[in-house]
Amino acid sequence: MIEVRDLHKHFGNVKAVDGVSFIAHDGEITGLLGPNGAGKTTTLRMLYTLMRPDQGQVLVDTIDVARDAEAVRRRLGVLPDARGLYKRLTARENIEYFARLQGMDEARIRARRDQLIAALDMADIANRRTEGFSQGQRVKTAIARALVHDPNNVILDEPTNGLDVMATRSMRRFMRQLKEEGRCVLFSSHIMQEVAALCDRIVVIAHGRVVADESPEALRAQTGEANLEDAFVKIIGSEEGLAA
Ligand SMILES: Nc1ncnc2c1ncn2[C@@H]1O[C@H](COP(=O)(O)OP(=O)(O)OP(=O)(O)O)[C@@H](O)[C@H]1O
């Protein structure tokens, strides 16, 4: 479970995150939806300990990030916005390297690596150097690497960005599988169809603030709009920066 309480972060005069609070539960997919520049990536960076908030608290499985960032990192699998693979290493080696950094023993590394390569359908690319990988191949490798230590909480920054229709569908299937396994799945998107298709809970962010935090059904009911897309536009107050 990931709990965010009154997070703030500014860059100069820009209030990127301006009092964000929400809870992402285990066994659910929570979507952070907002237009470009809304503060999604900045929020996620503070959650996965890359950036320190100006104010506010983040708890992962009730552990305070400010108190024990190491323990939090062990419980998190992160697909960052910059996928950052080692291009001289093969996909398999990228996964193994991260597993070793997590302190896993060799038998467990092998088992988990093979499990993820199968689950993400990446047997055909596993032994290729990641240099020259397509967008989809890079995302798969980065996700396998992020999940190698079997974390309870999974944070994905725009996981389907740049993926084609087939790769997007397989990513959604994989995210549902993570949910079925009881994990807490939190992802960001500016694509309404994506959150509508996947989420148990939608946290809508605009101008660094949470403007709605509901199930897709409640969001429709609250805005009186049968169509989720119309509901989003109504909540955000403009269509700017949102993709259908
Ligand atoms: N390192 C930084 N330095 C200066 N400004 C920043 C920095 N990071 C983010 N910002 C600003 O903070 C605001 C929120 O940015 P953020 O990347 O969190 O938005 P986002 O919701 O993830 O947008 P997108 O959908 O375009 O990725 C923007 O105005 C952005 O320009």
From TrEMBL:
SMART domains: AAA (SM00382). Gene3D superfamilies: P-loop containing nucleotide triphosphate hydrolases (3.40.50.300). CDD domains: ABC_NatA_sodium_exporter. Pfam families: ABC_tran. Keywords: ATP-binding, Nodulation, Nucleotide-binding, Transport. Residues 2-232 form the ABC transporter domain. GO terms for molecular function: ATP binding; ATP hydrolysis activity. Signal peptide: none annotated. It comes from the Bacteria. Belongs to the ABC transporter superfamily. This is ATP-binding cassette domain-containing protein. It comes from Dyella monticola. The lineage of its organism: Bacteria, Pseudomonadati, Pseudomonadota, Gammaproteobacteria, Lysobacterales.
